[in-house]
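User: Can you recover a sequence for this backbone? Please restate the input before giving your answer.

Assistant: Of course. Working from this structure:
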């Protein structure tokens, strides 16, 4: 949509209702993954990006496709492989000849020029190709053929990683991990949910999704997300949590001091606040609470702490480290500068 196009007005109540409608439509095809759907929708409404990790076959591709159908926006999928080139993602210049024999170069856009981009098994591509996503994710534009071209808005990259087959993979660099607003683990469905999946996918019944929003409505919701006020003590608590991820900070808990080499960057605090704003609005509230910040802490911080080999040897997970943060950094009360 055009940047100068007037946006409709969306109230907090309408925001929550539209978000529930989007989640309900996605839920028609994604069974038993309510928390995962909420994480991806949160990234969309905060205009961030999502990183999903889980074994193959759990519906990660279908999730983003269903989301694109629910809001009637274009979707593209890029299967990352070791031989994938940057031009395969952003596009390239092609030489064309018209009916008069005149030859000109024309830019042919790559799959990144879609509102929803699935980067499937992103850790299978080389670092050079992975870096092609960096400008797109951060700047929402790509530079190719000597020109910078804006990407459509809203714009969401959902990348997936397969934790099982690690041979031939290239771990994502911290600079790219930091550009994902939230990271979610895709759990294996329960037995009852798996029965429902089989009933829906092995018969003749097909689900038709309804469009419940469009680009202008989503941009209005994103604008409302940005305008949600945050009290100073809530903002400070988000900062306290990020500071405590650094092993040399006085407020760092013992597990962080022992296992973490580098803590979260300022983007971690931005992720806490933006995701907290979405959480408040989805709950029908026009202001952010401490509970909102702490509720999104795991998804916002789990991929932003660089751990040493001791953590792997001792079986220390990111979930354990974030839990220690939440236990060690107390909840402040209104008017406090922050946790001590």
């Amino acid at each position: 949509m055009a940047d100068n196009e007037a946006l409709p007005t969306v109230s907090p109540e309408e925001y929550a209702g539209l978000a529930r409608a989007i989640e309900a439509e996605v839920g028609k095809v994604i069974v038993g993954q309510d928390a995962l759907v909420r994480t991806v929708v949160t990234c969309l409404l905060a205009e961030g990006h999502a990183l999903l990790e889980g074994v193959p076959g759990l519906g990660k591709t279908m999730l983003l496709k269903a989301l694109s159908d629910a809001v009637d926006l274009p979707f593209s999928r890029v299967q990352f492989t070791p031989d994938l080139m940057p031009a395969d993602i952003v596009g390239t210049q092609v030489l064309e000849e018209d009916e008069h024999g005149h030859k000109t170069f024309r830019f042919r856009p790559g799959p990144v020029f879609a509102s929803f981009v699935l980067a499937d098994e992103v850790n299978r591509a080389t670092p050079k190709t992975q870096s092609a996503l960096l400008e797109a994710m951060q700047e929402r534009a790509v530079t190719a053929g000597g020109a910078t071209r804006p990407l459509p808005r809203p714009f969401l990259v959902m990348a997936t990683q397969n934790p099982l087959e690690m041979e031939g993979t290239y771990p994502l660099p911290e600079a790219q991990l930091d550009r994902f607003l939230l990271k979610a683990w895709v759990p294996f469905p329960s037995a009852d949910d798996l029965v429902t999946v089989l009933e829906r996918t092995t018969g003749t019944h097909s689900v038709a999704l309804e469009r419940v929003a469009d680009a202008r409505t989503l941009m209005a919701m994103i604008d409302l997300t940005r305008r949600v006020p945050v009290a100073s003590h809530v903002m400070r608590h988000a900062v306290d949590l990020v500071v405590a991820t650094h092993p040399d900070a006085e407020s760092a808990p013992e597990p962080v001091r022992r296992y973490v080499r580098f803590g979260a960057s300022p983007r971690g605090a931005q992720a806490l606040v933006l995701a907290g704003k979405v959480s408040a609005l989805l709950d029908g509230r026009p202001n952010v609470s401490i509970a909102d910040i702490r509720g999104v802490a795991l998804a916002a911080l789990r991929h932003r702490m660089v751990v040493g080999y001791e953590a792997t040897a001792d079986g220390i997970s990111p979930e354990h480290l974030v839990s220690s943060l939440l236990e060690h950094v107390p909840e402040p009360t209104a008017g406090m500068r922050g946790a001590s």
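That completes the design. The chain has two domains: 12-83+115-217, 229-328.
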